[in-house]
Amino acid sequence: MYHYQPMDDQQTSHDQDATRLSLSTQQEPDPASNSPSRIATSGDMAIAAIKYRFARLVITTITLLLFVFGTPYLVQQIQYSLEYGKIKARYDAASVHLSSGTNESISQRSELVSNKVAPSVVHIHTAAFDMEARTNRRVLPESNLFPSRGQGSGIIISTDGYILTNRHVIEDSSLVYVHLADQSRHSAAIIGVDKETDLALIKIDKGNLIAIEWAPREAVQVGSMVWAMGSPFGLEQSITLGIISATHRTAKVGTLYQDFLQTDAAVNPGNSGGPLVNEDGLLIGVNTAIIGDAYQGISFAVPGYVAKPISDQLEKNGRVSRGWLGLSLTNSTAEILALHQLELTEGQSRLGAQVTAFAPSYSPGYAAGIEINDIIIEFNDRPVTSTTQFIQTIGETPGGEEARLKLRRLVGDESQEILIKLTLGERPTE
Question: Is 14 an active-site residue?
């Protein structure tokens, strides 16, 4: 028989103390043995906290900057979009109404023309720095260091940002800026200029623009109503009404390659480069010049049929190439015309262009077989009415292109009709 005998209290207490000591040893390691690990962990946590706080600071700062500076820009862009939407709606309504052929009063017609043309009209301002003043400190006064400013008008001719204006508007400019009808502002690059017609092509980096529509050549008639738009004296989107007073003006201004429309629509400084449009809102000319320093009832515009091929060449090549025959010409007298069996029709004062010399002797005209005293009566199936008109017609045709000439030549006592095909040379630059 076995008897259970409990341990005495002293032994039990000893065993419990030993157990507690063992557990204590396992749960509480020596601080000295794990000190580096604990320090490293705390350091990583501190660095992480600093990085977090810095990231939050950066994000907060960027958010504030975007809010402060981005909000006005965003609001501005929204305003531009809203304004463009209004302009586009008026443009669409006016285009439909004008194309319907409905007769309106002059005031109604003016409003419709304005709504259709306005989106394609821009205000141009320029800055030109006095480079001598900027590089030579001895030049005084110091105000010369600041840019001089100019202004004018322009016409949007393509949806991707090409703008037609006058050469003298952007001439000698270091900076060119454009204000659109929605009041947005854009810097512009100069694509090319043509001194002979005083035209220039610039471009802004913006798409989805409303381009003006070109009128056909036959739309230009004396007595037709026209509207001039632009920024006279900086007053943007101004419009005036007049009529075509005359065509083919060259005597007062320009060169032989100018072929001005004369109008009585009010044109003032700042209108230069703006459109002259007909009653359908189609472009028939580019407002260019006035007589004197202010409007006196006479103003001039480069016809659309002259401006269109010039702008096409500037866009394609950045320059204008003009055809050249190397001929000295004069208007034939009535006696010479009679010898060639040519008669002036009713209303004609001149006919043809008579060859008087070759300049120089190796000119394309001489090489093609043209002779002195020949009277040129047609160029590419277009009648030649005068020397000036013939030179202008050749100038509209780029050098290197094929051309057909019809002329009259005296052979003995008889006048014979001669057909000549040739390749135009390129007019030498001055």
Answer: no
Name which CATH class applies to 323-426. mainly beta
pLDDT at position 256 is 64
Q: Is 179 among the residues known to form the active site? A: no
Span(s) in the chain for CATH 2.40.10.10: 120-204, 217-314
182 classed as catalytic: no
The model's pLDDT over 162-201, given as tens digits with 9 standing for 90+, comes to 999 999 999 888 899 999 999 899 999 999 999 989 999 9
| pLDDT beyond 50 at 7 | no
What number does CATH give the domain 120-204? 2.40.10.10
Comma-separated ranges of CATH 2.30.42.10 domains in the chain: 323-426
Class of 217-314 per CATH?
mainly beta
Tokens representing residue 57 in the block? 């600071």
Which of 168, 173, 245, 311 does the annotation list as catalytic? Answer: 168
Beta bridge partners of 420: 405
Q: Who contacts 265 (Cβ-Cβ below 8 Å, separation ≥6)?
A: 226, 227, 228, 240, 241, 242, 243, 276, 299
Range with the lowest mean pLDDT among 148-162, 344-358, 373-387? 344-358
Q: Catalytic one among 194, 198, 259, 264?
A: 198
pLDDT tens string 92-106: 888 887 877 666 788
Dihedral angle, C-alpha 406, 412, 414, 419, nearest 10 °: -20
Q: Which of 238, 272, 311, 332 is catalytic?
A: 272
